Amino acid sequence: MVQIIIDALQDKKGRNIVDVDLSVIPDTICNHMIICTGGSPAQLNALASSVDDKVRSELHIHPLAVDGMHYAHWVAMDYADVMVHIFLEEERDFYDIEHLWADAELAFIPDLD
Description:
Structural class: alpha+beta
Strand content: 25-35%
Number of helices: 3
CATH architecture: 2-Layer Sandwich
Distance between the termini: 23 Å
Radius of gyration: 13 Å
């Protein structure tokens, strides 16, 4: 699922994608957090729709919850074992959630330009 989500984000030009691997940390809320930056509210909606469409079509899985689509500054998608966070740059810099998990392994995914 992680690679499918990353591919969906890259399809819509998501930037600064990070896979936060929480599977090595006991008692976390999920096994992976995928974090991505978009350039505008419209792009955040397109990124979230791309993830939803690709995961549904390839894995037949629906998110348990999606929050933030109306304001599109921070969209969170809950797939139980995988959480997807799509931010505008200012919000991502402010919350800096990938660094809240100091023990996690971070995989930085190169931007496709």
